[in-house]
Amino acid sequence: KTVSIELTSSAPNFRVLGAEVVDGPFAARVTDAAGNPARVEVSVREELLPAETRGENGTLKIQSTDPSEPEKILPLLAFGRLNRAGPEAATP
């Protein structure tokens, strides 16, 4: 699942310069750097989750042109169990 984070600023010409996952099994990408709101998409990287996990924590760092807050650190939380069931076995 992917979640979109909207970022706003009263600073003129606000832009998001980057989004980086500092820790945790997440991926982030800037999808609208120059919008106000700007957007960053965050998703869980399922291949990095341990088997039978029910929740994970992480940290997202966002850099922007906002002079009052050029760097923002956000906690990331993912809850719920993945369905890792393989294809159903064929019945005779």
Structure in a nutshell:
This protein is mainly beta and 92 residues long. The chain has strands at 2-7, 16-23, 26-32, 38-44, 55-64, 71-79.
Structure, explained:
The chain is mostly beta strands and 92 residues long. The protein has no helices and six strands. It has strands at residues 2-7, 16-23, 26-32, 38-44, 55-64, 71-79. A three-stranded antiparallel beta sheet has the order 1-4-3, with no helix packed on it. A hairpin with a 6-residue loop joins strand 5 (55-64) and strand 6 (71-79). It is elongated, with a radius of gyration of 17 Å. 15% of the residues are buried.
Layout of helices and strands:
Blueprint: E1 2-7, E2 16-23, E3 26-32, E4 38-44, E5 55-64, E6 71-79
Salient structural properties:
single chain; 92 residues; mainly beta; 3-stranded antiparallel beta sheet; elongated
Share of β-strand residues: over 45%
Mean pLDDT comes to 85
Strand order in the sheet with the most strands: 1-4-3
**What coarse outline follows from CA principal-axis ratios?**
elongated
- Give me the count of strands: 6
| Radius of gyration, taken over Cα atoms and rounded to an integer in Å | 17 Å
Helical content band: under 10%
Largest sheet data? 3 strands, antiparallel
Unreliable sequence segments:
none
What structural category do the secondary elements indicate?
mainly beta
Instruction: Give me the number of helical elements.
Output: 0
Along the chain, the helix and strand elements come as EEEEEE
N-end to C-end Cα span:
35 Å
